[in-house]
Write a sequence for this structure.
């Protein structure tokens, strides 16, 4: 039985970058992820939305194993997610992650933040790493801040540095866990613009967000989660104009009428 | 006191006893105190950091060892530990610390005992520092592919250290004063000389004051310097 399914996977693997199958996770008595099946193909931008507590952040964090899962399987680029150790570290380097609270290394300058992974994980030499770091900082529009410490930057600037830090590892896929939720309103757009550009450049992205505008304009697919389950998946236009499930209708009615 | 200060002759008589002590001299004895402090300070910093790493490691055996070590060692009186190094390690188990000369052996044993004892406090100070580093820092480190040891060495510990320079200064000051316990196994540091002087001389209060002053001279700048360093290196969030 297993042999057949493996063979089938291999055929599908060419375009599928991230595959979650029957993923379940509990936090104590709370069943936060229930039978999650989700496939993300190369170059696709998937936006995950849903009410808070629906498990969307947890889902995002399981993909680079910052959260473990109780059952099911996650494969990235055809390889199952390793349990721990060197293999896991290597995989994480291929999966970029941007956090809600930026999490820039507080004791290192902006430039050092973007260089660190290249040097310590990718074993790049210092000069090449700095060159690439400056290039990336320029790309996200914070080149002039390279020698400052994270605490000296605005939230929007910090988050853009965090994106540069993740990009420095040449990731196959980028995870965004509510990247704009901790930002002042006037800084949200500068971060979203960087993300839009990334999406246009063909980066595979999984974005957990409350920014419906971004979902509409940048996503190839919207995944709607509620109570630990994927309730609905659709292209953005269809999802926002004609949601099928009552849960999604209810959610959209609450957020879109202001 | 004023007559001692104003009359040179009186001063000579009062402090005369100091000139009887040449081996070890007052400064020589304090130099031994300084050496004990520095060597066991460095030793305890290294061993304490390793213990802290064990206590936060994902390996249960290491965590268990770290916990047991800290709780045993910090709850045993230092005098017992120092006496054990000499009467237990050296006399029963034949640990000579690479020297047949008693003086050197006992000095090294005292450093070992002081370092082993102080490391328990260093460990707990650093562990509390680790707790001040937001979880997101370690998560971000892991997310770019750093392994456990890199995450600890490059991201968590550097921030933890900066947060606990103040508490570590306390530990270092306590250590400086704790070196006096080495007198129990005959290490010729300041306290042993003080004991000897008190037995031989009349000016007991003055002798006490001289040694107290000596220790303040050692510890006060330590505290001030590390306090300044702590502010300077504080991680801004």
């Amino acid at each position: 039985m297993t042999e057949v399914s493996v063979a089938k996977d291999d055929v599908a693997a060419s375009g599928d970058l991230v595959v979650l199958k029957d993923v379940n996770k509990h936090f104590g008595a709370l069943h936060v992820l229930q039978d999650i099946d989700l496939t993300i193909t190369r170059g696709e931008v998937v936006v995950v939305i849903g009410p808070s507590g629906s498990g969307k952040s947890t889902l995002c964090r399981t993909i680079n194993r910052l959260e473990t899962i109780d059952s099911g399987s996650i494969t990235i680029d055809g390889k199952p997610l390793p349990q721990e150790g060197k293999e896991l570290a290597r995989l994480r380097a291929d999966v970029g992650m941007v956090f809600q609270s930026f999490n820039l290394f507080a004791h290192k300058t902006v430039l050092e933040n973007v260089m660190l992974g290249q040097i310590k994980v990718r074993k790049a030499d210092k000069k090449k790493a700095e060159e690439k770091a400056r290039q990336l900082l320029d790309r996200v529009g914070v080149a002039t801040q390279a020698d400052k410490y994270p605490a000296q930057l605005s939230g929007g600037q910090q988050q853009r540095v965090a994106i540069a830090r993740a990009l420095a590892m040449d990731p196959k896929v980028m995870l965004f866990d509510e990247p704009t939720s901790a930002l002042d309103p006037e800084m949200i757009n500068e971060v979203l613009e960087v993300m839009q550009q990334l999406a246009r450049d063909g980066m595979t992205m999984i974005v957990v967000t409350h920014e419906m505008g971004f979902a509409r304009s940048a996503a190839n697919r919207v995944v709607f989660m509620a109570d630990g389950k994927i309730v609905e998946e659709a292209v953005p236009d269809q999802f926002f104009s004609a949601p099928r499930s009552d849960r999604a209708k209810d959610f959209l009615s609450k957020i879109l009428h202001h | 006191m004023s007559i001692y200060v104003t009359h040179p002759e009186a001063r000579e008589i009062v402090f005369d006893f100091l000139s009887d002590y040449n081996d070890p001299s007052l400064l020589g004895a304090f130099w031994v105190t300084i050496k004990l402090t520095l060597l066991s300070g460095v030793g305890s910093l290294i061993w304490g950091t390793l213990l802290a790493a064990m206590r936060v490691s994902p390996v249960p055996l290491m965590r268990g060892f770290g916990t047991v070590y800290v709780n045993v060692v910090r709850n045993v009186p230092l005098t017992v530990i120092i006496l054990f190094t000499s009467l237990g390690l050296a006399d029963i188990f034949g640990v000579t610390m690479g020297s047949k000369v008693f003086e050197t052996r006992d000095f090294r044993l005292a450093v070992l005992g002081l370092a082993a004892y102080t490391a328990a406090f260093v460990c707990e100070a650093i562990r509390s520092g680790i707790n001040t580093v937001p979880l997101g820092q370690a998560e971000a480190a892991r997310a770019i592919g750093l392994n456990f040891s890199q995450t600890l060495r490059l991201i968590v510990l550097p921030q933890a250290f900066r947060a606990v320079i103040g508490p570590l200064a306390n530990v270092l000051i306590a250590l400086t004063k704790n070196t006096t316990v080495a007198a129990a196994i005959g290490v010729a540091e300041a306290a042993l000389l003080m004991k000897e002087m008190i037995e031989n001389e009349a000016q007991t209060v003055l002798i006490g004051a001289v040694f107290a002053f000596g220790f303040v001279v050692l510890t006060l700048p330590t505290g001030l310097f590390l306090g300044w360093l702590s502010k300077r290196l504080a991680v801004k969030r």
Q: What stands out?
A: The interface with chain A takes residues 58, 134, 136-137, 139-147, 150, 154-155, 158-159, 162, 235-237 of chain B (CB under 8 Å). Chain B is about 75% helix and 0% strand. The two ends of chain B are 52 Å apart (CA to CA). The CA atoms of residues 37 and 176 of chain B lie 5 Å apart.
